[in-house]
Amino acid sequence: MNEQNNMKPYVIGLDLGGTNSVFGIVDARGEIKATTAIKTGGFTSAEAYVDAAVSALEPVIEQVGGLGTIKSMGIGAPNANYYKGTIEFAPNLPWAHDGIVPLAEMFSERLGNIPVAMTNDANAAALGEMVYGVARGMKNFIVITLGTGVGSGIVVNGQLLYGHDGFAGELGHVTMVRGEEGRLCGCGRTGCLECYCSATGVARTAREMLSKTTRPSLLRELDSETITSLDVSIAAEKGDELAKEIYDFTGHMLGEACADFAAFSSPEAFIFFGGMVKAGELIMKPIRDAYDQHVMPIFRGKAQFLVSGLDGASAAVLGASAVGWEI
Ligand SMILES: [Zn+2]
Questions:
Q1: What is the 3-state secondary structure (H, E, C) of 160-217?
Q2: Residue 201 C-alpha to ligand 1 middle, in angstroms?
Q3: What is the tens place of the pLDDT at every residue in 173-196?
């Protein structure tokens, strides 16, 4: 740590999600010293959102010794452009769904001109793993986030891949099923990995399997319209064969996709992040099996398959703060 960092020991991390915005004041060891949160939606303009955020932040900044102790701010947000510090056309954010919001600059102006950097949530997760998590010391790895969607952060030669426009690393939207059979994706295309391996994709697989067969399953006791990936994992843990098959199908597709990703950047590890990895071996075993089956021989046996070591509740804030340490 250099002298300047010693003088300013903290970074603000903001995990800006569709529902909640969680702020943490984080030190270089990844200890969260103070937190606060606001609702993300409910504001008609980005100015109103930033006003509410700064009002919530001021007391916690005072708690750690004032703005003079803050080095920078890092934000993990949907549709964030790292190069421009903007959120662009984010479908789930009412104040950013039909335009470009210069959020980094807006926060910087309100917080004594500290540097503010932002990137998408999956990239923030990758930086979080590199700075605080299981990817410490790694230079080539891919983080795959399994949540409402499927996101990814790709690190090559020690650096996060941003691409020419700041949006690189959308591995959730590689095509896994081509042609008319492919499920319709939120991105407007069909057959994307996300349509099968996100939490909503798993629920959809469950509905399809339940309606195509008459096999007995604990899932039949539930309303099929409202089945979630958590229901599937609970049933699978109880030994339900159909639920286990749903996880097999999901894991197999992820493993097959990872085999293709290996051909692209030869990572030393694939790191999985998000609620669905709580299913443990139910999802990780089919991933590894399908990977070994599909990967090119030169890559076989070289990549590790890991689960995020960061605590779920604070991981996103730590990831966002890691974006701040980078600048
Ligand atoms: Zn897609």
A1: ECCCCCCCCCCHHHCECCCCCCCCECCCCCECECHHHHCHHHHHHHHHHHHHHCCCCC
A2: 12
A3: 999 999 999 999 988 899 999 999
